[in-house]
Amino acid sequence: MGGRLEGKVALITGSGRGQGEAEARLFAEEGARVVVSDIDRHAAEAVASSIGERAIAISLDVTDANAWSGAITSTTTAFGGLDILVNNAGIGIPPRLIEEETTEEHRLIIDINLHGVWLGMRSAIPVMTERGGGSIVNISSIDGLVGVAGMTSYTASKFAVTGMTKSVALEVGRRGIRVNSIHPGVIETPMVALAPPEVHLRLGEILDRQAIPRMGTPKEVAYLALFLASDESSYCTGSSFVIDGGHIAGPYRDDFTR
Ligand SMILES: NC(=O)c1ccc[n+]([C@@H]2O[C@H](COP(=O)([O-])OP(=O)(O)OC[C@H]3O[C@@H](n4cnc5c(N)ncnc54)[C@H](O)[C@@H]3O)[C@@H](O)[C@H]2O)c1
């Protein structure tokens, strides 16, 4: 076990599976005490109990302001404070043209991916201020930096995370609180595994155009989150960190790829 987060307390949303789960496990290995939170309480409990005494599980729907108050209270009661918030919970919707997206889907994705992150930051900042600092890591996407046909509402939610990260970083820097965003490419999690068949049909072709032609792993993203959560990134704030195997580095040219 390393000690890169020794003495820190971390709350990670949507950590019952996927990237959030990998972050919870890695943060605990690195010495943090971790609040594993998810809308799926059973999933959160399974992850926390397999981590052991460094973790507790709570049920948290990130769209619910009252549930956020409860989550912050549970965290400070269990572990005495809060140093790290990873706003990881998020959903995708099946890709389609804007005129085929429904208002319900649009509102749901904005509610979870945008409003959930806003509520998380708003809820955590008072306790971090009281503690004299903290690190907030918001999980956006490469779709929060470039447009993607078929993904209008998802890109709207993820660009919003990119922007909020920078605004809030400017507000709270003097209080010792840093705020950064992570922009993963295609990562091998249940979100991708459960995507509709048309996504899987095109996945090989999409990955082939990357400099590193494979999916990323949740653990690879967790190592970036660990860096941003830890004091090693003490001069980083308001920044966007891409982890995508070169997906958005530029257009692929097969005549100049060896
Ligand atoms: N997997 C990818 O390729 C990829 C790429 C870029 C960005 N992302 C982003 O990374 C984050 C994590 O994605 P993942 O791939 O691990 O997804 P995942 O679907 O495997 O896991 C997401 C978790 O969030 C939880 N969740 C969903 N709605 C919630 C809510 N309202 N409140 C609390 N928890 C909720 C789910 O129960 C689940 O445990 C998301 O924000 C996603 O948009 C994923």
Automatic annotation (TrEMBL):
InterPro entries: NAD(P)-bd_dom_sf, Sc_DH/Rdtase_CS, SDR_fam. The keyword DNA-binding does not apply. Transmembrane segments: none annotated. The keyword Plastid does not apply. Keywords: Oxidoreductase. GO terms for molecular function: oxidoreductase activity. Belongs to the short-chain dehydrogenases/reductases (SDR) family. PANTHER family: DEHYDROGENASES, SHORT CHAIN, ESTRADIOL 17-BETA-DEHYDROGENASE 8-RELATED. NCBIfam families: PRK07231.1. This is Unannotated protein.
